[in-house]
UniProtKB/TrEMBL annotation:
Coiled-coil ranges from the UniProt annotation: none
InterPro entries in alphabetical order: UPF0145_dom_sf (IPR035439), UPF0145_YbjQ-like (IPR002765)
Similarity field: Belongs to the UPF0145 family.
Protein name: UPF0145 protein H6G24_27620
Taxonomic superkingdom: Bacteria
Pfam families: YbjQ_1 (PF01906)
Amino acid sequence: MILTTTDVIQGAVIQSYLGIVTAEVVYGSNFLRDFLASIRDIVGGRTGSYERLFEQGQRKALEELQLRAQRLGADAVIGIEIDTGTINVDQSGVLLLITATGTAVKMR
């Protein structure tokens, strides 16, 4: 299955638009990861543990997006957009949210 951020696929003809598909991945906060990130905030530098978490989350969101598009009979998902954010749970932490959205299409 083709997954792309573009709204066209070079050399392909879109036969029908099957609808918008979305996928969400939510991760809980982790005390150790948060603590190490706070140290990085003070001394500077990149926070590798969060970078890996977001990379994994984006990959999982795209995998789920593909599965949901396949259920619709799609050959591709076009116009994909990935967003990240947080959900404040309470004073004890936040949830990390990664969403992927696109349009499932059937090609000729």
